[in-house]
Every structure is written in C-alpha cells, then in structure tokens.
UniProtKB/TrEMBL annotation, chain A:
InterPro entries: AAA+_ATPase, ABC_AA/LPS_Transport, ABC_transporter-like_ATP-bd, BCA_ABC_TP_C, P-loop_NTPase. The keyword Magnesium does not apply. Keywords: ATP-binding, Nucleotide-binding, Transport. One of its GO terms (molecular function) is ATP hydrolysis activity. This is ABC transporter ATP-binding protein. CDD domains: ABC_Mj1267_LivG_branched. One of its GO terms (cellular component) is plasma membrane. SUPFAM superfamilies: P-loop containing nucleoside triphosphate hydrolases (SSF52540).
TrEMBL record, chain B:
Keywords: Cell membrane, Membrane, Transmembrane, Transmembrane helix. One of its GO terms (cellular component) is plasma membrane. The chain crosses the membrane at residues 38-57, 62-80, 100-119, 126-149, 169-188, 221-240, 260-285, 297-320. This is Branched-chain amino acid ABC transporter permease. It is a multi-pass membrane protein.
UniProtKB/TrEMBL annotation, chain C:
The chain crosses the membrane at residues 18-37, 44-64, 70-89, 101-122, 142-162, 191-213, 219-237, 244-262, 274-296. Belongs to the binding-protein-dependent transport system permease family. LivHM subfamily. It holds the Pfam family BPD_transp_2. It comes from Salipiger pallidus. GO terms for molecular function: transmembrane transporter activity. Coiled coil: none annotated. Its main location: membrane. GO terms for cellular component: plasma membrane. GO terms for biological process: amino acid transport. It comes from the Bacteria. The keyword Transport applies. It is a multi-pass membrane protein. InterPro entries: ABC_transp_permease, BCAA_transport_permease. This is Branched-chain amino acid ABC transporter permease. The lineage of its organism: Bacteria, Pseudomonadati, Pseudomonadota, Alphaproteobacteria, Rhodobacterales.
C-alpha cells in the first residue's frame, strides 16, 4: 500500500539541540497512525515540518506521491493536507459558522470575490454547515467563537479541517483538555473519520491512542525508537525503557 | 447592533442635512468645512480597510493621499500652462477633467501601495509601522527636493477642475461630488466586509496560521487590501487637492498619516461608519477649538489620549456599544 | 572631488550618525525591554534642546545647559512614563502609536505656547568654536569633532552599563523574561521608569548637542525620530549594537549621498539638473538603504529572528 504522507530521514536542529534526528514515517490510506512520546520529544517540531511551517535541515516530506519539502503551508493545504492546532487557532471575534466558512473558502481556492456576500453563497455555506453538523456544532453556528467552551473549540478545530475535504489529517493533540466524556465522543468520531482520510494523530491521551491507532510510532529525543501495532508497542522493550525507565 | 445602525443613519442624515442647512442659511464656509470632513472621511475609509479589516498599522497613508493630490496637481498644472507632460515617445497632455484625474490618482496610488506593500509586508508588527512611516518620509523628501512641481512650495491650481454637467466652483455641487464618492465607497466597503475576501482578510488579521492552514496566503490578502486601501485614500487626496486648489508636500507628511489614523481611531476602528464619525468630529473641533485657541492641538492630543486609554471602540463604540 | 573634502564629508556623516545613535539607542532599549514603540521620543529630544537653550541663555554656561538638557529630558521622560506610558505596555502597537502621537501634539503645541514659534539659538561654547587640524591636512570644526567623541563615550558607557552593572543585568533579564525577574523581587515598575528615563535623557542630550549647530524649534524632533526609526529597523529592533551600526550607516549614507550623487549625475547630465536630481535622490538614499537591508534581512542586521 502506498503512503499518503511520508517523511524520509527528516533532520532539524536548533543550535546543539537535535529536535528531529533522522525521522522516517508513513501515513497509509485508511489508518490512524499515532505519534506518542514524552514532552520535549520533538512532536511539535515534526508536525511543523510535515505541514510546512518549518523547513527541515535535511530529508524530504512527500504527500500524495509528490515531494512537497519546499512547499509552503498553504500549498500543502490546497493539495489536501488538513491540520488541527494544539492550541485552537480560530478567529475568536467571529462566529462558529464564519470559522467553518473560512475553511470552505480555503478549500474553494477562490478568495478574490469582493462584492457578493458570503452569507448568500450556497456552495460555501453548504460545505461549512455539513462540517459543523458532523462534529455536532450545528446548533451553535451563530455563537461567537470566543464564547465557546474549550471542548467546543476543539470540535470547531476539527470541523474547520473537515471543510477542506482533505486527503489526510494531521491532528496535534485534539483531545487536550477535553475531559473524559469529550475524549470518548471524539474518539468514536475519529474512528469513523479515518475511512474518509487517514489521520496522523499526535496525542497524549493514551486511552484514546490505544483505542484508535492502527499503528503507533514512539518519538524520543527526536528519534523514532519504535513503530508498530498497539500490541507490539506495548511489548517493545525500548518503549518501556523510555517511558518507565529502569523499572522495565 | 441596532444602535449602531441608528447612529449610521443619523450620520448619513447629517451628511445631507448640514449642507442643506448651510445652503438655506447662506453659509458657504460651512459647506467647505463639510466637504473637508467628507474628504477626510473618504481617506479614512481607505485606511480602515488596511487598518481595521486587515490589521495593517500603516503610518504612511499620507503617501497615497499625497500621490492623489499630486496626480491632480500635475495634470491640472500642465493643462493650465498648456504644456504637455511629455512629448516623446508619445504625447501626454495635462487635463482639467475630474474623471481622468480620479482615474490617474487611483491607479497611481494603488500602484504605490502595491510597491510599498511588496516590501513592507515582508515584515510585521512594529517593523511594519516604522517601514510605512519611512516610505512616507521618502515620498515627502522627494517631493520637497524635486523642483519641477513646486518643491517645498507646492503647486497652485487657479480654477477647480471640471466635471461634465456640473459647475464645480459652486461649493454645494463640489460637495455633492465628494459625498457621492463617500457613499459609494462606503457601500463598496460594506460589501467588502461581507464578501469572501473580507472573511479571509478578517481571519488573516486574527489567526494568520489558520488562514495558511486552509490554503490561503495571508500576505497576498493583505497586499490586495493595502492596494484597495491606498487607492481609496489616493482618490480622497485628489479631491482634497481640488478642494484647496493646491497641493504641497504637507499632504505627504507623516503628520498627515497620523491624522488619517486619528480619524479612524477616534471614530472607531473596523466600524463601517467609524471614519465618518471620526473625520466629522475632527473637523468640528478643529473649527471650534481653532477659533478658541491657536494651540487647539493640545486639546486634540488630550482627547485622543483619553480615547485611546479609556474609550475602546472610538466614538461609534462609545455610542453604539461594543461590537457584537 | 578632493580626498580632503571627502574625508570631511565622512566625518560629517559620522557626526550625524553618532547623534542618531543617541536617539536610536533609547528607542531600541525601550522597545527591547518594554515592547513599546514611542513616537514621542522626538518630543524628548526637543525638550532637551529647549532646556539647554533656556539655561544657556540665562547662565551662559554650555556645560550647565547640557546637564540640564539631560536631566530635564530624563525627568520629562520619567513623568511621561508614570502618567501615560505605563498604561500602554499591555496594549497593542496601534494604541501605543496613537497615544504617543497624542503626546507629540501635546508636547509640540505646549512648547509652541510656552516659547512661541520662533526658533531659539544655542551657541557652541567658545572653547569649542574653532577648528582642529587633523592629520592629512583636514581642518574640521572642533565642536563637531567633540560630538563624535561624546557619541562614542555614550556608546562605551551603554556597553559598560549593559555588560558590567546590576542595572544592565536586570535590563537584559527584563528583555528575556518579565515574569521571572518580577518573581525574583525586582521592582519591575521602577526598572521600566528608569529605562525610559535613561532613553529620554539620551534623546535630550542629543537634542541639546544638535541644537547648537541647528536651530532649536518646535517640530525639530520628528525628522530625527523618523531617522532613528530607520536606524533601528536597519540595525534590528532591540539591539544596541545594531543601533550603533545602523546609525553610522544612515549618517554616512545621508551625508555622502548628498555629496556624491550630484557628482554621479554629472556624468550623465548637465550641472544644474545633476544638482536637482542629486538632491532629490540623496534625500531618498537612506530609505533605499533601508529597503535593501529589509529585502536581505527582514528583521534587520542584528535583529532576533521573527
């Protein structure tokens, strides 16, 4: 099976710190591939390189078979790479619907309309409302984003990614701060979503990771020390060593 | 929101009622003041697109105001002296026709905004402020040291330029032209705020990372906003030069940039009618306080300071409440 | 052009660059430590010049005038900081720009009200009024040479303050982590007032020093302020070293441009239009320099990335 998104021998240093030290990984059609690792393992740096907000020192990123290493964030997004942010990046002054509309607008690739009101743009609205529906925010469409709860903002993050109708998702800790019920809901939602497009999931919530992931990669000090199924990772000695120290 | 609508309606009413009263009471000077306010408002509506919607704190909008002014001054001075602007490789003559002057003003200031934007938008935040300010100074010093069009002394035009079917020398008719422009541009601005472009620009101001992540390019959106903004301010500059029948480097000065920004802020940033309220207020206190004291700008400074420190949302915000 | 004339122009460029450095150092320090963009820095320059002209007029002592300029501007700065500026630290740049623009209006019109619109004159002291014979047959005004000296002394002084004193340690700590040094018990409010007053004092000193070779009048601060902005944009905001390099670059470009560009245009056109073109373009030269630096490095020569 070919990889939708692949990193090959990525390297990135900040001074003496090797934040990404020869990382290779793939995201295949139909799977959820989770990246776990202790704090400071370099997960955010890795995501930034996959999505294009940070240029690697060496190595390549390919998406849908194209080398996109030199492509900026927006170009990768237009190709169908959707990301969610660890801390919500939403237009707080605007309504929920407007945030979703922004996603739909980005997906349309046509922002250069200066006169026709968005509110009467059936195509954009349909797409935005469908995404809000899917995450269960349809009732809150006219609420100002700043007035949403933390959990609702996390849902909106996912909804905006959905409007892009992407070929792959990169999600940076979507469960963060959600609470048990919220995590459970999102977990079942993501389990369905992977049939639409594969998900690269960076997550701290181990219950969610073990419930969802088809494969897990463990990132420690900028290196992937193990990749495998849930069971393989549970049994892996290096992983136990990294997480549990000499207890293993 | 309804209170803001009421306020907007009152402002539009005033734009018609004040000159109507002045006409009835035979107070032509009031019409001139009102024209001044309307032109300032138009310049500020232009800035508000970059500043309010795009979040671009440009301290160099006098460049566009001045380019509009010089477009008028240069075209009209050649026409009144019967000298062509250039002969080779092809003949370009001056003109006293307002529509052509407006077109040139809009194109020239839009082009300047594009060039300045290309360079300035490589930076952001406080660098952007300082760079736009510096480009403003560059234009200012160029105009003062370039003697062909009057240098420091500026250019006088003896007769106001013409518009087909109107006598622009009659104050109320010229006011009508300026008011028509202001209302038209306000209507376009309203549409812009609700359009796809407005949605994207608004988001690019708040969360550029998100805008990139959905596949749009914030600097390109901001560049287009700056061009639209500069073109509108340039149009206002052409009208302002026509009002005074005079253009000088003062129109390019950084104080001018500061004043245009003051109109926007006193009125209410990112509010459709904020620039109108701000420019009207400014011209009023300029007139009243200017009559009381030669040093009226001390009071303007104090008012501005109070608005910035304590009155978020400017006049429109204070009267109509916070934005929904 | 003769080498001697050229050398004189280089010295002139250094002199104006060094004075710009006094302005830019304060601006960049205030931005670096407090994150504040202060348009009213030019007003403090003006305050220094007026204070010096007044005291020199009353006492005839140039040194006393300079001390008053420094102290007066520092005091005015401290007052400005306590009454207005400290309310702006948490605000966005737009609010800072507008509030300090308002301060300019208040200071300028207040000064006009107090002193009138006519320029005051501040004479260079007798003991610096002559010229100095430099190696290579260059004669140069002693006062301008002294300005270069003062600027270099201030530069070294700032370096010493920054690198060798407790205040310097606190300033650098304040640039890096405000909360931390507050948690360590440093009175951050007082530190900010002190830094602001220091920057203000330098601006006032520059105003007084330059006031003796130009006239002292309302509005004298703003052109210098904008040049100082160009300096710190070129040097990188927050960097004193960048301010020094940027100031010298701007000073030299401005001075040499106005001399060399007309010469350059003479190669292509007749003398009178060469003079015209030269003066028009030399007034733009420093902005072209700035644009060039920004294309190359968008955060200036010594600026932090992003």
């Amino acid at each position: 099976m070919t990889a939708v998104l692949a990193a090959t021998d990525l390297r990135k240093s900040f001074g003496a710190l090797k934040a990404t030290d020869g990382v290779s990984l793939t995201l295949r059609e139909g799977e959820i591939h989770a990246i776990i690792g202790p704090n400071g393992a370099g997960k955010s740096t890795l995501i930034a390189q996959l999505c294009g907000s940070l240029a690697p020192d060496a190595g390549t990123v390919s998406f849908l078979g194209c080398n996109v290493t030199a492509q900026p964030v927006a170009a990768r997004a237009r190709m169908g790479l959707a990301r969610t942010f660890q801390t919500s990046a939403l237009a707080m002054e605007d309504t929920v619907l407007q945030n979703a509309l922004l996603g739909a607008l980005g997906a349309s690739g046509k922002p250069w309309h200066f006169f026709a009101p968005v509110a009467r743009d059936r195509g954009l609205k349909g797409r935005a409302e469908a995404a809000l529906d899917a995450v269960g925010l349809a009732d809150l469409r006219d609420v100002r984003t700043a007035d949403l709860s933390h959990g609702q903002r996390r849902q909106l993050e996912v909804a905006v990614a959905l409007t892009l109708e992407p070929k792959a998702f990169v999600m940076d800790e979507p469960m963060a701060g959600l609470g048990q019920e919220g995590s459970a809901q999102l977990t079942s939602f993501l389990a369905d979503l992977k049939r639409t497009a594969p998900i690269l999931l960076v997550e701290h919530d181990m219950d969610a990771v073990f419930a969802l992931a088809d494969r897990i990669s463990v990132l420690v000090y900028g290196r992937i020390i193990a990749t495998g199924t849930v069971d393989e990772i549970r049994r892996d000695a290096a992983v136990r060593e990294a997480y549990l120290g000499d207890e293993a | 929101m309804t209170r803001e609508r009421l306020l907007n309606a009152a402002l539009v009413l005033a734009l018609f009622a004040v000159p109507a009263w002045a006409l009835w009471a035979d107070e032509p000077f009031t019409i001139t003041l009102a024209t001044r306010a309307v032109i300032f408002a138009l310049a500020a509506v232009g800035l508000n697109i970059a500043l309010g919607l795009g979040g671009l704190v440009s301290l160099g909008h006098a460049v566009f105001f001045g380019i509009g002014g010089y477009a008028m001054g240069i075209l009209a001075s050649h026409a009144q002296n019967y000298t062509p602007i250039m002969e080779a490789p092809f003949l370009i003559e001056g003109t006293k026709s307002m529509p052509i002057i407006w077109l040139v003003a809009v194109l020239a200031s839009g082009l300047a905004a594009w060039l300045i934007g290309l360079l300035s938008l490589r930076t952001s935040g406080v660098y952007f402020i300082m760079i736009t300010l510096a480009f403003g100074q560059m234009a200012y010093f160029f105009a003062t040291s370039w003697p062909t069009y009057g240098g420091e002394d500026g250019l006088s035009i003896y007769v106001r330029n013409g518009f087909p079917g109107l006598n622009t020398l009659v104050p109320i008719q010229f006011y009508g032209i300026c008011l028509a422009w202001l209302l038209l541009v306000l209507a376009l601005n309203r549409a812009l705020m609700r359009s796809r472009f407005g949605l994207a620009l608004n988001a690019a101001r708040q969360v550029p990372d998100r805008v990139r992540a959905v596949g749009l390019d914030p600097p390109r959106l901001q560049l287009v906003a700056l061009v639209l903004s500069g073109a509108i301010t340039g149009l206002a500059g052409a009208l302002f030069a026509d009002l005074n029948r005079f253009v000088s480097p003062t129109m390019l000065s950084w104080q001018m940039s500061g004043e245009i920004m003051v109109f926007v802020i006193i009125g209410g940033v990112a509010r459709l009618f904020g620039p109108v309220a701000g420019a009207g207020f400014y011209v009023l206190i300029e007139h009243w306080l200017g009559g009381v004291s030669e040093y009226w700008q001390i009071f303007l400074g104090l008012v501005l300071l109070l608005v910035v420190l304590f009155g978020k949302g400017g006049l429109v915000g204070m009267i109509a409440g916070a934005r929904k | 052009m003769s080498p001697i004339l050229l050398a004189e122009q280089v010295l002139n460029g250094l002199q104006s660059g060094v004075m710009l450095f006094l302005m830019a150092a304060g601006l960049t320090l205030i931005f670096g430590v407090m994150g504040l963009i202060n348009l009213a820095h030019g007003s403090l320059y003006m305050v220094g010049a007026f204070a010096a002209a007044t005291v020199a007029g009353l006492t005839g002592s140039f040194v006393l005038a300079l001390v008053t300029a420094l102290a007066g501007a520092a005091l005015a700065g401290a007052l400005m900081e306590v009454v207005v500026i400290r309310r702006l630290y948490a605000r966005d740049h737009l609010d800072q720009v507008l509030a300090t623009f308002a301060l300019i209006l208040i200071f300028s019109e207040g000064t006009r009200w107090a002193f009138g619109s006519f320029p005051l004159y501040l004479d260079t002291p007798d003991w610096l009024s002559g010229t100095v014979q430099l190696p290579g047959g260059i004669t140069y005004p002693a006062y301008r040479l002294a300005l270069i000296g003062v600027g270099l002394v201030v530069g070294v002084g700032l370096w010493w303050l920054n690198a060798r004193t407790r205040l310097g340690i606190r300033i650098r700590a304040g640039e890096n982590d405000r909360e931390m040094i507050a948690a360590l018990g440093v009175d951050i409010g007082r530190l900010y007032t002190l830094v602001f007053a220091l920057g203000a004092g330098l601006a006032g000193l520059a105003g007084a020093l330059v006031g003796a070779i130009q006239s002292v009048q309302v509005g004298m601060g703003e052109p210098v302020l904008i040049l100082a902005f160009v300096v710190i944009v070129i040097g990188g905001i927050g960097s004193i070293r960048g301010a020094l390099i940027g100031a010298l670059l701007v000073g030299l470009t401005g001075t040499l441009g106005s001399v060399l560009l007309p010469e350059l245009f003479k190669l292509f056109t007749d003398a009178s239009s060469a003079a015209t073109l030269g003066s028009a373009f030399s007034s733009m030269a420093i902005y072209v320099l700035m644009a060039g630096v920004l294309i190359w490095r968008p955060t200036g020569l010594f600026g932090a990335r992003s």
